[in-house]
Amino acid sequence: MDNLIYLDNGATSFPKPEPVYAFMDEFYRNNGVSPGRSGYDLAIETGNIVEDTRKSLTRYFNGTDPNRLVFSSNSTDALNLAISGLLNPGDHVITTALEHNSVLRPLYHQSLYNHVEVDYIPFDGNGFVDPDDFASRIKSNTRLIVVNHGSNVIGTVQPIKEIGKLCKGIGATFLVDASQTAGKLPIDIEAQNIDVVVFTGHKSLLGPTGIGGLYVKENVIIKQTRAGGTGVKSAKRTHLEEYPYRLEYGTLNIVGIAGLYASLNWLFEKGIDNIHQHEMNLTRQLRNGLAEIDNVVTYCVDDLADHIGVLSFNIKGFEAVNTGTILDGEYDIACRTGLQCAPLVHEQLGTDRIHGTVRMGLGPFNTPSHVEKAIGAIREIASTYGR
Length: 387
Description:
By secondary structure, this protein is of the alpha/beta class. Helix content is 39%, strand content 15%. Helix 6 links the parallel strand 5 and strand 6.
């Protein structure tokens, strides 16, 4: 474990900042009670951490009302809440070929069971979608446009401000999946014309697994598709309509929120711009090193402007899964292989036919030495197995 070089931060960031571990342990030992259910001091103190985390995330997204920051289990959960709550039978949705299955599968289910029509915008050779392509797909029943802000396969960051402006012009709701970018890049719902932004805690926000959520701009209506306990107005037979209770159900993951509270404090103290720059420096080092190795092909990283620290590659003639197995077993390098839950990306790249790619995700605790060792390992594997 001490020798492990962890390059799978696109899946889950690891390790977490030390204050996250310490605060979660202290908080859960001393404040492990349900917030908002009772009026005793401990419940109030726990509730204060929850509300402070809402406020911190609301400021990060440049929202106006912390009550409209809703917690969920992760971004998949939040995307399901948003997609099922925004669409009605017969609606039309525009999305992209860059999406994760957390978007693709809910939309497919909507098309299968609710007669929702879905159009998919392809990306260009550099990995970006063109806002004009969205304009050409608009119909009279277009209700929702969903875009992955940062690709978890090729790392490209999409022009959401321009796409959001288009949505605003036609009255369609703009839903942004910020699973990869929340904690790496500035996200401003006003400046970027975003109606709903979805995030998860365990990736670039450097928090624990099992916590995520969404921010819903005022005047955006997401209908309720679940019901349950809220801890307030218990005599009411129907689920509450006001936020955050409108989309929150049951007891919150308070230890997850506590971890997110601590990670946000750490991120903002260090500066997300500084962290992003560090990760991109490492990504550039990795890209440049791989470019010098025979039989290695990379995807959409010729220009690293508008990218996050995610890079996919293959060794020609060698299965991605085998590369990953050797990196792990012989070099103690952890990375992700396969389709990365984003099959349409691979279908367009053509890598679906060779069972995906090897993906490396750089994080704040990676170093140039880690990258150099990874380049050396790939060079040795390519020289032995590549063709």
